[in-house]
Amino acid sequence: MDPKPGNSWKGLVSELQLERFQVIAAELKVTGRFLLRPLDAALELVTHLLARILGTNLVRRHFHLVLSGLVLFGPLLSFWVSKYNIFANSNHFLYRKFLRSTWGWTCILTGSFVVLLSFSARRSVPLSLRHFSRIGLTGLLWWGAQRLLTLFEDASGSCYEPMPPVQDVQSPAAAAQPPVLLLHEDLTKASCLKGNFLWRGYEVSQDVLILCFCCLLLLEEISVFGRHLSQQKSPGAPIKVLFLLCVVLLILWMFLLLCMLANFPNWPSQQLGGALGYLGWRGLYQGWYKLKPRWCCPGLPGEELFEKELKRL
User: Fold this and answer.
1) Scanning 36, 60, 301, 311, which has its CA 20 to 30 A from the CA of 284?
2) Where are the alpha helices (DSSP H) in the chain?
């Protein structure tokens, strides 16, 4: 029997619709390639330019001096910065979302970049894990440093409760006297501030410490990307995007550091934090990591990753 005319008509319509969808998909594919081509060219240009700048000896050898000058002279900006600007609010979005989790953002982006860079360069999982161990060791050291600084602040300070002044009608000068402070013993700094009491003692700015250290760490880890580009002329887009994100994060940390110093100056707590951050970077990247790579030393960024260096060895 001949097929029904209705069924043949439906089959013809479905074939026409399928061909139409294929034509539209091909047009969209061509348009997408046309639009992505300039974006890819811009990504290539920006990554090569930034990698070349950050990989120069001038930047790598003098970046810590720039940070030192920023920490030392940044508080002077408080004389010109308005106290009503948006960054003078300690509850600002950038402070809440980024400053309070500085190491978390640095660990995620830098760790991802280090793993992808080392694996794309040598295709070795053990070597990638060894380079990633630098980030893990730094995280453990930062955790220990936080505990030690907290113990130092609790041991060197005391908690006081301001008492309301006694109203004395016969002595009008009593109102001008400073309030009486009642000492509370066996209270930590966290519990003291939680009870809305007054804490007096020595402290180190942990925010400035971790910001300075993360800036130095980021520059050390991403400055080797230029050598990777010279080895692989066309690396994938994911590693380029990660590199740009790390650069943006470096700029953000420097901006937040400047905002803190200008809007919330606290001498010498912030300068002590910056000095400890510098000493931490100096001890790791200029000391420990310069040793020969083995089980107790992950080595410097880029070590044993590039062919030219391996031929020299």
Assistant:
1) 311
2) 5-54, 57-73, 93-97, 102-122, 125-156, 189-194, 206-222, 225-231, 237-263, 269-285, 307-312
- Which of 303, 275, 272, 299 shows the shortest CA–CA distance to 287? 299
Q: pTM here?
A: 0.83
CA distances (Å), 216 to each of 13, 51, 148, 258, 278, in order? Answer: 65, 16, 22, 15, 8
Over the stretch 72-112, which tens digit does the pLDDT of each residue have? Answer: 999 998 888 888 888 888 888 888 889 889 999 999 999 99
- pLDDT one-digit tens code per residue, 109-155: 999 999 999 988 888 888 999 999 999 999 999 999 999 998 988 88
Contact 298, 288 (CB under 8 A): no
* Dihedral over Cα of 115, 301, 283, 265: its sign: negative
